[in-house]
Amino acid sequence: MCAKILLVFIGVVGMISCKQPEVKETGPRSVKVAKAVPLNVVEKSFSGVVSPDQFSDLAFKMSGPLIVLNVEEGQRVKKGQVVAEIDPLDYRLQYEAKKSSYLTAKSQMERSEKLIRKQAISRQDYESTQASYANAKAAYENAVNTLEETKLLAPFDGFIQKKYVENYQKVQAGEGIVCLINPDKLLVRFTLPENNMQYLLSEPQIYIEFENYKGKLFRARIKEYVEASQDGSGVPVSLYVEDSAFNLNDYKVATGFSCRIILKITREGFENYVLVPLTALFPDPHTEELNVFVYDETTQKLEKRTVKEGGLIGRDQVVVQEGLRAGETVVSAGTTRLVDGQTVNVLTE
């Protein structure tokens, strides 16, 4: 069916060409051009967004009223910096009580150790004192940790993406206080349509083009993907940028930035085939062979070249089996009355 359509198209163009004699034009004409795309490489692109690879919703392990909230959204913090603090009064009282009990138990333990060496107390009494000391020590150490945990510290360098609460608010154990993000550890997330899953499984070359650095491609690799589409929207995929040319000092990329993900898949058996727009082909009025005009970017001149087609792809693309190489530029619109060796101007969109 595709071959019949192509023949009809070529026949119509041939009839039109026969009716119009060749005219040699002296001035440059304007034409549209397109690249010959290799058929052995399939390229798919998807929209993605930059996301943090390291982030944490910071929370207290105990409840209480906030008395300090030292940060604002967007603020940078250092590892170990105090982000927030809850009222430590009750926990300090518990600490003092546990400390007193521990010091008493410690003193009794030291006394029992002297007495057991002199065999002045029984082994049973010594072990009872030893157990009391161990319990008091554990309770004291727990009280020390609890008091320290009334201060919420940043676990890594980063910036505050979001505040969930306000100062002087009573918070519960485990309730998020702020979201901390490490801006130096980024990944890219995108959703792959279910019918494109085979491209991900065929070990593609993966590139990322950031919206604010158009034309610059960075190599990437898959971090992880979910082998299911839970809500029917597609397969979530996470990528790492893995390119020695990429660093955050030279390329200002941050969480939330848009980007384009490009998957390139190589297929065997089509190494010499290329794909061009159907409108690039035209029949020679004398030989009826199919031709294209190849554009030389250096000289801005055209070369008329005979090609062998291999059928339609979709509605407006045609396979060229011979006569063109991948990457060559052909005239895709405006071929009428062009001649071999003519100088042209390329229209840019």
Can you offer a commentary on this structure?
There is one protein chain. This protein folds into 3 domains: about 1-40 and about 270-345, conserved putative lor/sdh protein from methanococcus maripaludis s2 fold, CATH 2.40.420.20; about 45-55 and about 185-265, Efflux pump adaptor protein, beta barrel domain (Elongation Factor Tu (Ef-tu), domain 3), CATH 2.40.30; about 60-180, RNA polymerase II/Efflux pump adaptor protein, barrel-sandwich hybrid domain (OB fold (Dihydrolipoamide Acetyltransferase, E2P), Beta Barrel), CATH 2.40.50.100. About 20% of the residues are buried. Strands 1, 18, 19, 20, 23 and 24 form a 6-stranded mixed β-sheet that branches. Strands 3-12-15-14-13-16 form a 6-stranded antiparallel β-barrel. Strands 2-17-22-21 form a 4-stranded antiparallel β-sheet. It is elongated, with a radius of gyration of 37 Å. It has helices at about 1-20, 90-115, 125-150, 195-200, and strands at about 30-35, 35-40, 40-50, 55-60, 65-70, 75, 80-85, 150-155, 160-165, 170, 175-180, 185-190, 205-210, 220-225, 235-240, 260-265, 275, 280-285, 290-295, 300-305, 310-315, 315-320, 330-335, 345. The two termini are about 35 Å apart. By secondary structure, the protein is an alpha+beta fold. Helix content is about 20%, strand content about 35%. It is built from 4 helices and 24 strands.
